[in-house]
Write a structure and sequence with these properties.
Chain lengths: 266, 142
């Protein structure tokens, strides 16, 4: 019996030992798995963006100020801005979403609805966090699956591209990932000297107005419990510095609002 | 792996049955891929069918069955790990690739050992595997 136990221990040890030794090799690099994953992400991002491409706003009065806000967030948080592709699209819905390969799509409706640059920055920070924390690919892998994603990138899933894009643009991530993105956004705002609690204000306000104009409030309707989120964002922001250094001059913000067609009241 | 010189000489029919217990696991493993349980089930059915056979046949059916158990654990773990990568949000890591290579390596050793044993058992030789042979001696009554 002793002999058998010893032999069994040797076999188990041999198995785990082989596994441990082999796992010291960087297979990801050797088999170019990371490169293949990156290529897949690039292809997916481009495919999904194609759906919105026609609606992109090219007016520099709109793109430049929003880009300046994103640049401030990125540079203050050591995020490679060149890897982020910011797009503003001519869609009335109050929405912003992230697509694979660093695409952030901001709807015109979101800029119209935001009362100040802090609110817009807060939402953009939230989407940026989804990208930085790799939530986008996690969500796709979880809800769509690797096999479908590969079929889409190899041209086998024509009808699925629109369906997956809809999934990314108008459905929330799971609660844990949403909270993580909210907290990360507060951290980004704090580092960028932007008001960290304005995202909470935005959520509170849209959450209260939701029944009147729910049709356009995609970002809020797909991100449930806006008030609860607002509360924990405020709570998390409490310990943060309240230094605020605006990115845009008041005049530039007004020009941006006018360019997207917002009235004075908005 | 040890070839024992035992005084007992099995009949041709016994040697064929004993050898088939190993072949059964091989055929089922190929047919049942990628489900790792299939070869164990097939070997178990063959074992049940021969549990009233002679000692030589029973002994080899038991050794074949036991050898499938260890494979079942490592292959099942690898199978479900792969499923979680393909159908959920698990990602390929160095640990995963290393595990797959380790499992392939162990399966290969088992595969070669099984073929070798099937051939020698067919000739009526008593092939006793390291660890599995002793385990079989322990649980297979004369």
């Amino acid at each position: 019996m002793k002999k058998i136990l010893l032999q069994l221990t040797i076999v188990i040890g041999l198995f785990f030992g082989t596994w441990l030794i082999l796992s010291q090799v960087n297979w990801m690099k050797l088999l170019r798995i990371e490169k293949i994953t990156k290529n897949t992400e690039e292809k997916l991002g481009d495919l999904f963006w194609e759906i919105y491409k026609d609606k992109e706003i090219g007016d520099t009065l709109v793109t430049k100020p929003v880009d300046s806000i994103l640049t401030r967030i990125c540079t203050s948080n050591q995020i490679d801005k060149s890897a982020i592709r910011l797009h503003i699209v001519d869609i009335e819905d109050v929405n912003a979403f992230a697509l694979p390969n660093g695409h952030i799509v901001v709807n015109k409706g979101l800029i119209v609805e935001a009362l100040d640059e802090g609110e817009l920055a807060g939402v953009m920070g939230h989407e940026l966090a989804h990208l930085q924390e790799k939530h986008v690919m996690k969500k796709l892998l979880k809800e769509v699956g690797l096999s479908v994603l590969i079929s889409v990138t190899t041209g086998g899933g024509g009808g699925e591209v629109a369906e997956i894009t809809r999934l990314l643009s108008s459905s929330a991530y799971d609660r844990k990932l949403e909270k993580e993105a909210d907290m990360k956004s507060v951290d980004y705002m704090n580092m960028a000297n932007l008001p960290p609690d304005h995202l909470a204000n935005f959520l509170y306000r849209l959450g209260e107005n939701a029944p009147d104009n729910m049709r356009y409030l995609t970002w809020v309707s797909t991100h449930p419990d806006s008030k609860a989120r607002g509360e924990y964002i405020v709570e998390y922001s409490k310990g943060k510095s309240n230094k605020s250094r605006p990115v845009l001059a008041t005049q530039t913000w007004k020009q941006l609002k006018t360019a997207v067609g917002a009235t004075e009241a908005e | 792996m040890i070839i024992d010189n035992v005084s007992y000489s099995p009949t041709d029919h016994e040697a064929e049955k004993a050898s088939n217990s190993y072949l059964m696991s091989l055929v089922a493993a190929i047919a049942g891929l990628p489900l790792p349980i299939i070869n164990l089930i097939a070997t178990f059915i063959f074992y049940m069918g021969n549990r009233k056979g002679t000692y030589f046949v029973r002994w080899h059916c038991t050794q074949a069955l036991l050898s499938q158990f260890s494979l079942l654990f490592m292959n099942s773990f690898g199978f479900w790990w792969t499923v979680s990568i393909v159908f959920s949000d698990a990602v390929v890591t160095n640990y995963y690739v290393a595990y797959v290579i380790t499992v392939i390596l162990f399966n290969l050793i088992e595969f070669i050992a099984t073929i070798y044993t099937a051939i020698h058992t067919r000739r009526g030789e008593h092939v006793r595997w390291w660890l599995y042979g002793d385990l079989t001696n322990l649980i297979c009554p004369r």
